[in-house]
Design goal:
Bound molecules: uridine-5'-diphosphate
Low-confidence stretches: 360-373
Strand order of the largest sheet: 3-2-1-4-5-6-7
Number of helices: 14
Length: about 375
């Protein structure tokens, strides 16, 4: 690229940055902003009120938070609360759009996708979850049709759920590796990390912990209190310990001391930030063979991939975790998931989306026809 670009990053409307409600998106926004600023880009982040993001100042937008997409059914329509923070964020983006070269959307929502052609090729989207509703699938496909290069997914498995095999950019996540310390000698304990919500399938990890007798440390935001209470009631004998929602510093310290990270998601995980965080600490990952983790974990080398929803296989994998070399885990993180690697990937996406922007869109062609007429 010839000159550094001015970028506006529009965060998720499901919660303020720093709250944990945004799940992996919060870390993704931070990491992308960090590496791009380091490379000379001018970065502005806009996010719901009370957001906090380390050394970045955030333009805070008031309004009602958006309902979580993962609570919706496939045929549900789009729902916006009154005075929605989502619409307020995009009103702000519209007002300041002229000051930016590119606007990057991190919200998994219909509205910004629909707005893609209205921003004249400036608006691109990093889609954070797999397909959940028909209305979102169509919005993603339309954005690609009208503005080629405007969509990135974290993994090919995620893209496939939208019925796509091409026409998108694959942008896998990364982390600031210096914040994660390699731990050679773990304690006899397992880790489960994530939002505590049904699609994450925590109960299977709890059962596996009870069956093996190996204590399970649980870290993450309780997003669904009823679901959590039910897990506790149904597994009163399981050796589990809930540590709360931890900062990255504390998270990596606890995670590093574990034999393995267990990922028991029921949905198609778009990526799975927690997998690369574990690898960075030298912690092997045992995961259901479903979604993003299948593209991260090297089966038998940096963890074990097991048949989805099969607790027996989960238990077997836990029992052979000593076959995995913890150093190989850290090395994979260093090779593939450093912020520099992310910087290269995202610059490639920005470049491709800029090149695609030069091509006439339906709207350009339409206006030319109108002018000629
Ligand atoms: N996380 C955290 N503290 C915790 C537990 C989780 O900061 O105690 C973060 C973790 O670092 C990761 C995110 O929560 O970035 C979970 O992201 P992931 O991609 O695994 O799943 P998502 O929530 O996006 O479905």
């Amino acid at each position: 690229m010839n000159k550094p670009l001015k970028l506006l990053l529009v965060s998720t409307p499901v919660g303020p940055l720093g709250s944990g409600l945004g799940g992996g998106v919060e870390l993704t926004v931070l990491n992308i902003a960090t590496i791009l600023r380091k490379r000379g880009y001018e970065i502005t982040i806009v996010a719901p009120e009370t957001s906090q993001l380390e050394s970045f100042s955030v333009v805070e937008i008031p309004g009602e938070l958006q309902i979580l997409a993962q609570t919706k059914n496939r045929h549900d329509p789009v729902i916006l609360p009154d005075n929605s923070v989502l619409t307020n964020l995009w009103n702000y983006a519209r007002e300041v759009a002229d000051q930016y070269d590119i606007i990057v959307n991190f919200a998994y929502d219909w509205l910004p996708l629909f707005l893609t052609p209205f921003f004249k090729g400036k608006l691109i989207h990093l889609v954070s979850m797999a397909s959940l509703t028909d209305v979102m699938d169509r919005a993603v496909q339309e954005a690609i049709k009208h503005c080629p290069g405007s969509i990135a997914f974290h993994t090919h498995s995620q893209a496939e759920t939208f019925g796509l095999k091409a026409g998108y950019f694959c942008l896998s996540n990364a982390i600031e590796l210096s914040e994660y310390h390699f731990c050679k000698e773990p304690k006899n304990q397992l880790a489960w990390v994530g939002r505590i919500s049904p699609e994450k399938g925590l109960e299977d990890a709890v059962i596996a912990s009870a069956r093996t007798g190996i204590p399970l440390l649980i870290m993450g935001k309780i997003q669904d209190e009823n679901y959590w209470q039910k897990i506790i009631q149904n597994n009163s004998q399981a050796p589990i310990e809930y540590l709360g929602f931890l900062s990255t510093e504390k998270l990596q310290a606890k995670l590093g001391q574990c034999l393995a990270l267990v990922m028991t998601h029921r949905w198609i995980e778009a990526f799975g930030n927690v997998a690369i965080e574990a690898l960075a600490c030298g912690v092997p990952v045992i995961s259901y063979r479903r979604g993003g983790p299948t593209e991260i974990i090297r089966d038998g080398v940096t963890g074990w991939l097991v048949e989805p929803d099969n607790i027996n296989q989960l238990v077997n994998a836990i029992q052979k975790i000593d076959k995995i070399d913890r150093l190989a885990c850290r090395q994979q993180a260093e090779m593939e998931y450093s912020l520099d690697a992310l910087g290269d990937r995202i610059e490639q996406w920005l470049l491709e989306s800029t090149v695609n922007r030069q091509q006439p869109t339906f709207y350009d062609q339409f206006s030319r026809i109108k002018t000629r007429g």
